[in-house]
UniProtKB/TrEMBL annotation:
The lineage of its organism: Eukaryota, Fungi, Dikarya, Ascomycota, Saccharomycotina. The keyword tRNA processing does not apply. Residues 1-84 are annotated as: Disordered. Keywords: Metal-binding, Zinc. Transmembrane segments: none annotated. This is Mob1/phocein. The keyword Metal-binding applies. Zn(2+) binds at H239, H244. InterPro entries: MOB_kinase_act_fam, MOB_kinase_act_sf. Residues 23-65 have a biased composition (Polar residues).
Length: 296
């Protein structure tokens, strides 16, 4: 299911909305033409050509997002980077919240309980019978990336370097970028996210990583790439929750956003794609969704 029909329909009349929904692209189509979502047959959503070109020019000079750091204050005030293995890096803990007025907006009622779907996404994310394991992982990542990319475009114009000079997820978590020379640098959120989106898009369009042709085999490091991708996607979720949730509420999209995030977390939990310590910035929200039965 798509969580972005409301976004696609903003500013359009009912007839156009219906037409848009009826003509939604099928990203995954079975070779027999049945429409069964088993194979990927279309490139993921991309940024505009001019924007993509500018990002690629800078991206090629900067770094690969497969190596990233997170700032963590040492006792002497300097910045200590986590170990090279990303999966083993610890996330700085979120500030303890004691009073309701200290809760971020997305943890306050009624927003924390707003959702499009009743029940959990458990049965939706489970591997269907007779479907290839790697293809199912690729299918879900492909579609979720497209949805996240389109959600991000709603807020991109507000993400100026001046307004958001760092890629943060709350007051105690800041994601650093490691450039091609191994130097850890702090980037504005818009630049960090654009690098990530470009990197993921390149991965999804790489036949050696995400094969779409019949008979194509997934590489040995496929799951490692999937974990890197979902980890970076989570960081975008976290940044938007902490910095742009009021815009989501203003557009009345909190039900769509919460449902999309619940779907994403259900998927990564089902296939163990993200370590729990990486989820720390949004762990209170995830635990709330678990208590509500949205995530199992």
């Amino acid at each position: 299911m798509s969580f972005l029909n409301t976004i696609r329909g903003l500013g359009r009349g009912p007839k156009k909305n219906k037409k848009d929904l009826d003509s939604t692209n099928v990203f995954y189509q079975h070779p027999n033409g049945s429409g069964s979502p088993v194979r990927r047959s279309q490139s993921p959503t991309k940024l505009s050509p001019n924007k993509q070109q500018r990002i690629n020019q800078v991206y090629n000079k900067q770094a690969s997002p497969t190596r990233r750091g997170r700032s963590h204050a040492n006792g002497d005030g300097s910045t200590r980077l986590s170990p090279r293995k990303e999966a083993a890096r610890l996330v700085a803990p979120v500030t303890t919240i004691n009073a309701p007025q200290d809760l971020p907006l997305f943890l306050q009622e009624p927003f924390v309980k707003t959702s499009l779907v009743k029940g959990s996404f458990k049965t939706i994310v489970q591997l269907p019978k007779y479907v290839d394991y790697g293809e199912w992982i690729a299918l879900n990542i492909f579609e979720m990336f497209n949805n996240l990319n389109q959600f991000y475009e709603v807020f991109a114009e507000y993400m100026t370097p001046e307004a958001y000079p760092s890629m943060n997820a709350g007051p105690t978590t800041n994601y650093l970028w490691v450039d091609s020379s191994g130097q850890s640098i702090n980037l504005p959120a818009v630049q960090y996210i654009n690098y990530v989106l470009t990197w993921i898009s390149n991965k999804l369009n790489d036949q050696s990583v995400f094969p779409t042709k019949s008979g194509g085999a997934f590489p040995q490091n496929f799951m490692k790439d999937c974990k890197n991708i979902t980890r970076q996607m989570f960081r975008i979720f976290a940044h938007i929750y902490y910095n742009h949730f009021e815009k989501i509420v203003h557009l009345s999209l909190e039900a769509h956003w919460n449902s999309f995030f619940s779907h994403f977390i259900s998927f990564v939990k089902e296939f163990k794609l993200i370590d729990k310590n990486e989820l720390e910035p949004l762990l209170p929200l995830i635990e709330s969704f678990e208590e509500q039965g949205k995530i199992i």
